[in-house]
Amino acid sequence: MDLKFEDLPQAVSQLIEQNKLILNAIDENEFSENQIEEVLNLSRICELLELKRQTIYSYVSRGLIPYHKKAGKLYFFRQEIKEWIKSGNKSEKIEGVSFNPRRQNDYRIPKSLADLATI
Fold this sequence. Notes:
Multidrug-efflux Transporter Regulator, Chain: A, Domain 2, 9% strand
């Protein structure tokens, strides 16, 4: 291709337009519904959600988080987890342990020990 200095502005504008078309095609391809869904294992979901394994196991056993089980192993689809997070289930169980300020210093002592304390 023989390109002269005078033709540079037009060539650059053509390249910019082609670049925009390519970027749009990539964006459409990334978000297509035919895309293969990413499968996450337990350690990856713990890392992604910044939760401990025990917490994820608890959510699974109580049916709070979408999961799939195959050959005794837990798997999670990234898209299902995103939807679960976006759904905003404001269940207190999902939000974690709630703190009741009225019971801040309420230490429960078994009756037999309480009786001993009064002596």
